[in-house]
Amino acid sequence: MERIEAYKYLENNREYLFPNEKYSEEDLETALLRSNRNQEELEKGVKLKNPSTVQVIAVFPGSLGVDRFYLGEIAKGFLKYITFGGIGIWWILDIISAKSRCRAANCRKILEYTGWMLLK
Taking Cα atoms as reference points, which of 112, 86, 108, 116 lies closest to residue 23? Predict the structure, then answer.
């Protein structure tokens, strides 16, 4: 991908990607620049999830792990389900970190799609 396309993609999707606890803008920029895919392919191939939606899911059915399942974290979702949200503690922590976890999941999707999964 060309530099201008990469910057445009990152800027257009900033609210879905940053800030998060795991991946930096440089990580994604590197992956996009080394990718042989163009911006259109990336937008069609990677469907980003809305952090606000994950926040709402974390509040209401989040004690049953639905937010974790939604982000593709099946094992953690199951553990959260059988412990009723870690008896409420895990549920509260997930409400606080929902947007950041969603953004990190979106970044991970992009890195996997471009074939540049970093060790984080």
Answer: 108
In a domain, 25, yes or no: yes
Q: How many domains does the chain have?
A: 1
Question: Which conformational region is residue 101 in: left (phi greater than 0), alpha (psi within -120 to 50 degrees), or beta?
Answer: alpha
120 domain residue, yes or no: no
Alpha-carbon gap, residue 16 to 6, rounded angstroms: 15
Residue 50 lies in a domain: yes
Instruction: Determine the structural domain holding residue 60 and report its residue range.
Output: 3-114
Q: Which tokens hold the place of 82?
A: 């059988």
Query: What are the per-10-residue average pLDDT scores of the chain (120 residues)?
Result: 91 95 91 87 93 96 94 96 92 96 95 72
CA–CA gap between residue 108 and residue 120 (Å, rounded): 10
Tokens of 67: 């937010």
- Global pTM value: 0.90
Question: Helices marked H in 1-120 — which ranges?
Answer: 3-12, 14-17, 25-34, 39-45, 51-59, 66-70, 74-82, 84-87, 89-114
